[in-house]
Amino acid sequence: MQYIIRTPEGAEYGPADEATLIKWAGAGRIKADFEIRNEVMRKWHTAAETPFLKNVLRDRELEEKTTMGKKLGSFVNPTAELGSGQASNSLTNSGVFKWTNANAGRRLASFLFDAFVVAAIFWGLTFSLDLFPFKQAYLCYTLAGILISLAYFSLALGFMAQTLGQLFWGVMVIRKDGEPVLLGRAYLFTVLSWLTLPLTPILTYSTRSHRGLAERMTGVVVCRTRVMD
Question: Where is average pLDDT lowest: 19-23, 46-50, 70-74, 220-224?
Fold first, then answer.
């Protein structure tokens, strides 16, 4: 079962499985007043009421009370305990959630997955329905392919923060400050990703931040959905 987490400020994160949520709670990244629901049900519950989280949250609260000074220091500098080779960034100003950039391998795998999905949609909407006359077929199929691809990536990133391929490979697209990209930025990111496609593998593989040119231009991050340990 996959779950969605919502902070008191209304920011949502996930989906994540039960084991990941327990790990987040144990690390102090989920608080008792956070809300949680599964992907199927729309009703929210507080994390403190969730059976598999309440004991972890209670133990964490007791630990924080006895080591307040140390914990306060770690929240002021949330990356202080990370190794020098681990690049991480806070999704929120409090440092509760962190992201790590997706590497070139995950990006390529998710892109190939999405290419298959787009091809299936394209075939279903064009060839199987025989929408265009033969004389106009080449131009019409080309335009249809572009529009279908643009709509697929823009809508998926704008409304769900990840495409089906990214969902499968544990990747998502967010703003650098941790907020959703929304439709306009998702559209711009999609167009720029196509235009700068030859440079993307080079930058994501060779730079420490693993960010492509389209990410830098639109202020977004292609990151892992799994929280850092």
Answer: 70-74
Q: Which two tokens stand for residue 156?
A: 């998926």
| CA–CA gap between residue 31 and residue 195 (Å, rounded) | 42
Residue 84 lies in a domain: no
Q: What tens digit of pLDDT does each residue of 177-189 get?
A: 778 888 999 999 9
- With vertex at residue 133, the alpha carbon angle to CA 128 and CA 134, rounded to the nearest 5 degrees, is 95
Number of domains forming the structure of the chain = 2
Q: How many residues does the chain have?
A: 229
Is residue 65 domain-shared with residue 122, that is, in the same domain? Answer: no
The answer to whether position 81 is within a domain reads: no
Q: Do 5 and 45 contact (CB within 8 A), yes or no?
A: no
CATH number at residue 56: 3.30.1490
